[in-house]
Amino acid sequence: MKVLVLPVGPLKANCYIVFQEEEGDCVVIDPGGDWELLLHNLKEHRLTPEAILLTHGHFDHIGAVDDLKKHTGAKLVIHSEDAGLLQDPERNLSRPFGIGDLRVKATPDRLVKDGDMLEIAGLRFRALHAPGHTLGGVFYAGDGVLFSGDTLMWGTAGRTDMPGGNLQLLLKSLSRLSDLDDSVLVYPGHGPQSTLARERSSNPYLQAAGGPEKS
Ligand SMILES: [Zn+2]
Ligand SMILES: [Zn+2]
After folding, report:
1. Virtual CA dihedral for 140, 134, 201, 186, nearest 10 degrees?
2. What is the pTM of this model?
């Protein structure tokens, strides 16, 4: 699996292009903006996006969705709890952040659910519903990798003080990562990549989360 990282848009959110081989299909995770840059990279590696996976619906992760979908026909995938944010400048935070009202015109092709296995572009991802930063946050766990959105980042976690945010839910979502291997590479929504081992040893949110609740 190869992963290209492009920090895009006004908040430099990480957009990921994930693929097996050049000149093939790929998955784009969180196309947050800078459509021209994204297109340039897709062309350079001769990649065709089969799907757009969204970790959540905030404006800084969705700004290039319409351009990408219009030009490539890629299928749009998001959790139902965040689908409403796409057309809502208040809830996707574009209005409160003062970057102009963002309304995505494209409608989702698939509403992803907890536990779904996604087989796209020769890659496999397991979707884990991860509310806390937003209600419809999703982790996409692949072979040795985790795309964690704004739920888990290098040494920290996403804000929970905005609409849909909830610290208790976020900690519960983080606790669900306990069955993943230490060696898993974490690709967050902002900032540098990490490993689960590193986060387990130094991330106060992951430490506070502990393991899953036993019943
Ligand atoms: Zn966010
Ligand atoms: Zn973000």
Report:
1. 30
2. 0.96
